[in-house]
Design brief:
The complex is a heterodimer of chains A (about 150) and B (about 725). Chain A has a single domain, classed as Pnp Oxidase, Chain A (Roll). Helices cover about 30% and strands about 45% of the residues of chain A. Chain A contains five helices and seven strands. In chain A, strands 1-2-3-6-5-4 form a six-stranded antiparallel β-barrel. The longest helix of chain A is centred in the first third of the chain and has 14 residues. The model of chain A has no long low-confidence stretch (mean pLDDT about 95). In chain B, about 45% of the residues lie in helices and about 15% in strands. Chain B is built from 25 helices and 21 strands. In chain B, strands 14-21-20-16-17-18-19-15 form an eight-stranded mixed sheet. A six-stranded antiparallel sheet of chain B has the order 9-8-7-6-12-13. A five-stranded antiparallel sheet of chain B has the order 1-2-5-3-4. In chain B, a hairpin with a 4-residue loop joins strand 8 and strand 9. In chain B, helix 4 runs antiparallel to helix 7, helix 16 packs antiparallel against helix 22 and helix 17 packs antiparallel against helix 19. Classes of the chains: A alpha+beta (about 150), B alpha+beta (about 725). Chains A and B meet through helix 1, helix 3 and strand 7 of A and helix 3 and strand 14 of B. Strand 7 of chain A pairs antiparallel with strand 14 of chain B, so a sheet runs across the interface.
Chain lengths: ~150, ~725
């Protein structure tokens, strides 16, 4: 796995197969983790999710836009230890609005049609995380990093 | 769930639960063939064991450390060794142990049994695993039977079995093992019968020995052989042999002893018995509708059938089966003893003499044409020794593996490589070389004037004692400027040696093995204490063989290096002459011949390309944590020194981590300075790992692309316990 494409193909597969990601934010040095329904941009440079503006995660990322997202293929079985692939994405979160929001929401709801009311609620925000790097773990302990010039 | 079934309980639905070998025995018993009392331990017992103990996932983690196809055989052997040890060490879950103990005690009650493998895979693949999985005979006592059942289970994951499964495309995740438990029939005459000769379909073959037929199957006892007419059922020929030994039951297993004089004078079976045995094979063939290879034994004139299977050599011709090759990866003790004699008494002395003879020749006295001939001759000599290296010396390394398995079976240590402590600190040639370096570095350290001269690169006028020792070192080991055994660069020059001595002089603590190994004396005593009588002698002989095998892993490279150094010396002399002639614009047919010979040798190639790390979309790959094989326990952190070309070594600094494609045996002189070793080539017993162990250094081997993913100056951590290398980010 020395060429970017070797890592990108694993990330693309996770983007397609997985619906949920663990989002990490922090406030005043206290880390916080939460589950989010996500969709990834095709060029892998951005990940989007929707959150209510009243949540702790929204407050946290409003105070500090640095976040991490973890997406993995584990099935909660023993075989996960040798089979599961996991990627941690690091980047900066910002709210998406305007025409871009319309476009992204279309893709978001194509993947998560059951979240239509939630995603369109005026109290919810569409967040885009501009990715600076991915850390891919496979075969239990093999770790490669893919950094991105935004 | 019934874990043990008797033949009367079997029906066709059980085939996948008891495996092909067991099912065949059941069918034969049903058809009235005389077989010993037999029980079948189903795959359910195996599955219960590996699931309840977590072994199933542990095995898959081992096998998925990296792509299987990227693993060298040595790495696969290492994996198999670790897995085998897990099978020996993991306690059997109590409910399974209680059930097995109760059933085995009631069914066999003190009788000895054969514990044989029976893998359902075999049926699925339509291929034979004959010889790939283990079987044991004459096992006495419930506890011992259960221990041998574990060994049969573990043999599902032997290196040869793994390679064969990969070859024929079987899924590791679905593999399981059933076991046949057969009451021992102490036959005094045994053998194998082929209903069809694999190389002549009009014939059949019987092979027979006195005693257990394990001696025949292992190749330890040579059999008498009969060729029969397949159609007429008549004997065409009998080939008697010199009968000297037989395999008989001992207290715990079997032992090979001389055959009594009266038996050695006559064949194990009569003509009448041969025909009866052949009739048995033909009945088996009729039953299974394929030519059969049948193992049999005769006890008190009663003929027993032990097992029957399709003739695998017929299959292998058809399927291009590589099973035989995988089996050949392992050598018997007898074979290795013979190899040792050849290597120690013939090949090593010849290598030393060859290097001496070549060194004695004054190349400067040769004409250009004669020098070209000499280079060609040296290339051929070197080439022939490289072949000897692969054909004789590499297989001899199996002595270490054979001992390792023997040690682990007897001692069942927590660390499957504990046995290596009994082999280290032997008199290896590279250690002698490093001691000489230590001596020279000591002189440099105590003589500031000499140190100053060496640091300034002004080493022309050295004190006579130092100069004499340096000359002595160079005569014996070269000046460290040449990459030998496959190397491509050479520039006769003492500067690399002097740079290294300056570095060593500044770091005296680096010059001694840094870690005391476990007390080898106590381990040896504990190991030998596991055996009594003739078994103890066997264990001592095997330890002695392993020590010789271990020592040779280093020495053969050093001796081969000396021969190659002589080739390189001649090439350098040729190059110098070619350069001089071109400066002076001299042309002659002799110079052209010299140019041509040097060009043909293609010295100077082999530079490694760095892997691609970026793409046009702004993505850049960086390794963070790389997984290889644990090859030397310990943890160290330091700057990487990546060796892509031999001369990179001269910049090696104290406490750096040596990162290389494969440790060139003649590059181990920097090991005393190193804090750790990372090697692309995998395996516990490769040269780099052995030297690292000798110095107690953390070592990780088998990291693909190690020399392109890691850069000189990268801060890295080498975890020799887990086989992991981590590249640290700044600030961490």
């Amino acid at each position: 796995m020395t060429h970017p494409e070797d890592i990108k193909k694993h990330i693309r597969k996770l983007f397609i197969d997985q619906k949920l990601a663990v989002l990490s934010t922090h406030r005043s040095g206290q880390p916080y983790a939460s589950l989010v329904a996500f969709v990834g941009k095709e060029d892998l440079k951005e990940i989007f999710f929707v959150t209510s503006r009243s949540t702790r995660k929204h407050a946290n990322l409003s105070a500090d836009s640095r976040v991490a997202l973890l997406i993995n293929s584990s099935m909660n079985v023993d075989a996960d230890f040798h089979e599961a692939v996991c990627v941690t994405a690091q980047g900066y979160a910002e709210e998406i609005g305007g025409a871009e929001k319309v476009q992204v929401l279309k893709r978001y709801l194509a993947k998560h049609p059951y979240l239509e009311d939630f995603a369109n609620a005026p109290t919810c925000a569409l967040i885009g995380v501009k990715i600076t790097s991915y850390v891919l773990v496979k075969n239990f302990q093999h770790v490669m990093e893919l950094s991105i010039e935004q | 769930m019934k874990w043990i079934l008797s033949p009367s309980e079997i029906n066709q639905d059980h085939r996948n639960r008891i495996g092909g070998k067991a099912y065949t025995l059941f069918l034969m018993a049903r058809e009235g063939f005389k077989i010993p009392e037999t029980l079948f331990l189903t795959v359910d017992a195996y599955n219960e064991f590996v699931i309840a103990t977590g072994l199933r996932e542990r095995i898959l983690l081992e096998l998925n450390r990296k792509k299987f196809k990227d693993m060298r055989w040595e790495e696969i052997w290492d994996c198999a060794t670790r897995i085998r040890n897990l099978f020996l060490k993991k306690p059997i879950p109590k409910h399974l142990d209680v059930e097995l103990t109760a059933q085995l005690q009631s069914r066999f009650n003190g009788k000895t049994v054969a514990v044989r493998s029976s893998a359902p895979d075999e049926d699925a693949a339509g291929s034979s695993f004959a010889g790939l999985h283990e079987s044991f005979i004459n096992v006495r006592g419930t506890e011992s039977i259960i221990k041998h059942v574990r060994l049969v289970w573990a043999s599902l994951w032997s290196d040869a079995a793994l390679l064969y499964r990969q070859e024929i495309g079987l899924d590791f995740q679905k593999s399981a093992m059933a076991v046949v438990l057969q009451e021992t029939v102490t036959g005094n005459r045994s053998g194998v019968v082929f209903s069809q000769n694999p190389s002549d379909e009009t014939q059949g073959i019987i092979e027979s020995v006195y005693g257990f037929n394990q001696g025949l199957v292992d190749g330890r006892v040579e059999p008498d052989r009969w060729i029969l007419d397949r159609e007429k059922h008549t004997i065409l020929s009998h080939n008697p042999v010199e009968r000297s030994h037989w395999l008989i039951p001992s207290e715990n297993g079997v032992e090979m002893v001389p055959l009594p004089q009266d038996l050695s004078q006559r064949p194990p079976i009569s003509t009448e018995e041969a025909l009866k045995i052949y009739g048995l094979a033909c009945r088996a063939e009729a039953l299974f509708k394929k030519p059969q290879d049948v193992e049999w034994t005769i006890q008190n004139d009663t003929l027993y059938l032990l097992q029957s299977r399709p003739i695998t050599t017929l299959l292998s011709n058809k399927n291009e089966d590589k099973r035989a090759w995988y089996l050949s990866l392992h050598r018997s003790f007898e074979n290795l003893k013979a190899l040792r004699k050849t290597i120690e008494e013939k090949l090593i002395p010849e290598m030393k003499q060859t290097a001496r003879d070549l060194a004695d020749k004054d190349l400067t006295m040769l004409s250009h044409g004669k020098l070209a001939d000499e280079i060609q001759k040296r290339w051929e000599i070197n080439h022939s020794w490289v072949n000897v290296y692969w054909e004789e010396f590499i297989p001899y390394a199996h002595g270490i593996r054979l001992f390792g398995q023997y040690y682990n079976d007897a001692v069942q240590p927590d660390d499957p490589y504990e046995f290596m402590n009994l082999l280290t600190h032997t008199q290896m040639a590279s250690l002698e070389r490093n001691r000489m370096l230590e001596d020279l570095a000591g002189m440099v350290r105590s003589d500031p004037e000499l140190l100053e001269k060496l640091q300034a690169g002004n080493a022309l006028v050295l004190n006579p004692e130092f100069g004499k020792k340096v000359d002595g070192f160079i005569v014996k080991f070269g000046d460290l400027s040449c990459a030998v055994t496959g190397g491509t660069e050479c520039a006769t020059d003492t500067r690399p040696l002097f740079k290294l001595l300056v570095e060593m002089a500044a770091n005296p603590s680096s010059l001694k093995p840094r870690k005391q190994m476990k007390d080898a004396g106590a381990l040896e005593k504990n190991f030998l204490g596991c055996f009594e009588g003739s078994k103890r002698k066997e264990a001592m002989d095997l330890l002695d063989l392993a020590r010789s095998s271990y020592r040779l892993r280093d020495d053969d490279n050093i001796y081969l290096g000396r021969i190659e150094a002589q080739l390189l010396t001649a090439v350098m002399e040729g190059r110098t002459r070619v350069e001089k002639s071109s400066c002076r614009e001299i042309h002659s047919s002799e110079i052209d011949k010299l140019k041509s010979v040097i060009h043909d040798l293609d010295y100077g190639n082999g530079k490694q390309e760095l892997a691609a790390f970026t793409d046009e979309y702004g993505f850049k790959v960086k390794p963070r944590q790389l997984v290889g094989q644990p090859a030397g326990p310990g943890l160290s952190r330091g700057k990487a020194r990546v060796i892509r070309h031999h001369l990179d070594l001269q910049d090696f600094k104290n406490a750096e981590i040596l990162v290389c494609d494969s440790v060139d045996p003649n590059m181990t002189f920097v090991i005393p300075l190193a804090a750790g070793v990372v090697e692309r080539r995998g395996g516990m017993l490769i040269h780099g790992a052995i030297i690292a162990r000798e110095y107690g250094l953390p070592c990780v081997t088998g990291i693909p692309d190690a020399t392109s993913l890691i850069r000189t100056g990268d801060e890295i951590t080498v975890d020799g316990y887990l086989g992991i290398v981590t590249l640290l980010q700044k600030g961490l």
